[in-house]
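Recall that a protein's primary structure is simply its ordered list of amino acids. Everything else, from secondary elements to tertiary packing, is in principle encoded there. The following example makes that idea concrete.
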Amino acid sequence: MWLSQFLLVLVVIALCVSAEAQQQGKIPRIGVLLDSDSPRLKSFRQGLRDLGYIEDKNILIEYRFAKGNPDRISALAADLIDKKVKLILTAGTAWARAIQQVTVVTPIVLAVSGDPVAAGVAASLARPGGNVTGLSMISPEVSGKRLELLKETAPKISRIGVLWDRIVPENIFDFRTTEVAAQAIRLKVESLEVRTPADLEPTFSLALRQRISALIVIGGGVTNSEQERILAFEVKNRLPTMHELLTYAESGGLMAYGVNQADMFRRAAKYVDKILKGAKPAALPIEQPTKFEFVINLKTAKQIGLTIPQTVLYRADKLIK
């Protein structure tokens, strides 16, 4: 008697497991491949919820983080492909290129990126033509705008250091456009290139030897991950600084002018939705920014002894007091 009951229980359990497996098989599984977890992912999840997706109920997400080691991207991407993900969400054209070395079939959605065409991961913004689509931060006018705001904030500056990550392909474009914009308003630009975190201290020393009077920080693998060290250098040397990433100003940088990356991650959910419903990334136009935000940290201004002109304050979208 007990044996038959035991066998019946085993059958019921097996049926439940099978039903659950079948149910999970019907739920779309996507991959997220980034350097680390961040508040931006909360925005992405919110974007999914706005579209009716609830994690672990009607969508499954496999998270993989390189944790400061870009050499791991290919292996992590291969692992996601083994998990049969429908697409991979990532950030940056360098990451997209690394993933493309593993797959040219699985769709790749860029939550944020520089110039995917110049980086060779898409044929054009209007028709990407391959397996990469998503959102780009590229805008030729933005470099000039950052310089204009920086010069208006600190009129006496004459030599500006541009801190940028040489490994990121689109950063070359950002630096070149900054050079051109600086010539138009008679400012001298010094290139402060880094490739690894170990390059930061020698680069800081170089900046001081060059007697830079202001700084522009362009987003990249090193500059993003070494935020605390960069902010400490700015404040210690009382350098008026303009950042590309809004999060820098929110964390203690003087100013930032750029796109809202959290919002871009939220909008990336729309690309995920379209692809899960059958759209091909090759035909999904890559979105360019239409709105830029200007953030000023008044606490940092006071700390470095800089008075922000009222004309600049009026132009800010957000003041941190």
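The domain at 142-258+292-320 is CATH 3.40.50.2300 (Rossmann fold). Residues 17-24 have pLDDT under 50 and may be disordered.
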